[in-house]
# Entry
Amino acid sequence: MDIREHLKEHILIADGSFGMYYAEKYRTEESPELANTLHPERVRAIHREYIAAGAELIRTNTFASNTLVLKMPRESVSENISAAADIALECAGDSVFAAGDIGEMRGVSPENAAEEYVRAAEIFLGKGIYIINFESFSDTASLLPAMEKLRGRYGSDVFIMASFCVDRYGSSPSGRSAGRLMSEAAGLADCVGLNCGVGPVHMRGVLKSVSLPEKVFLSVLPNSGYPVLSRNQISFGNAAGYFGDKMGELAETGVNIVGGCCGTDPSYIEKTAEKLKGAYPANRAVSEKSGAKKTVHSGFIYGADGKLRKDKLIAAELVPPLDGDDEKLMESAHFLKNAGADVLTFPDSPSGRTRADSVLMAAKVRRETGMEVMPHICCRDKNALAIRSALMGAHINDIGNALMITGDPVPASARQSVKSVFNFDSVGLLKIASELNLDMFSERPICCGGAVNQNRRNIENEILRVKKKMAAGAEFFMSQPVFTAEDAERLRRIKTETGAFLLCGIMPLVSRRNALFMKNEISGVNVTDEIIARYPENGSKEEGEAAGIVLAKEVIHMVEDFADGYYFTFPFNRVQMLPAILGK
# Structure
């Protein structure tokens, strides 16, 4: 049978959850994939139950058959996959489609994961299973290269399915949107869709809220509903009839393959088959989103005409207070507004010390001064949910800029009571922001930037890093402080090789003690002995600031031919130095 021809005329009924049904049926907590070799009769029994219920496509019992989950050597995993393929083919016979099932591997590099996906797929193909089902993916970083290799090697001889796990708002665990994920996969897959994460009602809502890809088939395999935790056990209830009815409504969006995920046993598939078996695919639903809207560039790097500004831009950092007293910060904000700053930027608990929230601080400053503001948002203590919430809050408060950084680690002394998150790095944060800009903030996107460290030992890696950030959505960059001609030349090279919109970091050191601290205790900066010698050992405050002003002017002269602006960090909040530095 050719699945492509079948799908043109029929909605195909797939099976339901294998793993959860296996655990319930056999009262075991062992990985169901182990049964491929330990209990093959159990695997056969479940496949046959789903076929008897009306499934026309069964998936091999290999969702987690990989070296990471099974903790087996590669050869043993290959034997497991091979055994699962044999069992599925035996049960499918000539009247049911069999698909090789591959779940997302997390906790390994995208390259290693993609390699393992391809290896599993080639075992299926070698056995005669030409349908490869990638399911429950949260991102495409490892999926796209795997599909590209399979498509390049096997062409149309392989039928590739790719489905993604999202929540009721259409966001995957990695922060990617359902529409974007399916769109990216549609370039290589024959069928894209959603599975897991939500029940049929919310899955229908997600599909109706996004622009569905054309020229590919569409699959939907929702959960039976939402899980309930009782006595340390997860259950999904039993509403097979309701599920079947809602799958009928879900099919109206124009899907081609329907089935089930967590909580769906053969009774759910039976009710779905009663509703849809033999049905003709409906016309693909049109997104309920309104028509094309004009995007207005926001952010301090754009002029009123929406084009990048050509004048040298001035950013100044204000560190949120350690306590609830923001009087000095607000005074500084008003001063900097009158001193010519274009944007005020607020770090996110630098050095891992608790400070007032950067987004909330930025919102207050914008509200009371009317200035452009830019909170730093780091991933040290936020997962995808919190990051999206912070960005939505920023957008609601008319904050048009954000600097996305990985963030300083929690100090060693606090690590027993304070745990870092670091689910993402700055590239991951930029991807989340880009998703929100494309979908939720499309009319007024947040202008997101990244940090650049010109003093990194391997500058080639830093250049690649900048390019990755640009590909992820970074529109501007702010550098570490420049102190020497060598710093300036390295920054010039980064600018030349990437074309990034670049604000050069400038820190007007204000005393010998300040200079020694930066040299000896702060990584990523290059304070030389010559710079330290400019500051007298027992110099006055005025002498120190005068030396800092001269140093800042020298740095500006070094970089003014290529820098798009300057990012000032004033030690001890000495913002009154800015007019003298700018010659005002």
In short: The first strand starts at residue 12 and ends at 13. Residues 290-294 have pLDDT under 50 and may be disordered. The radius of gyration is 28 Å.
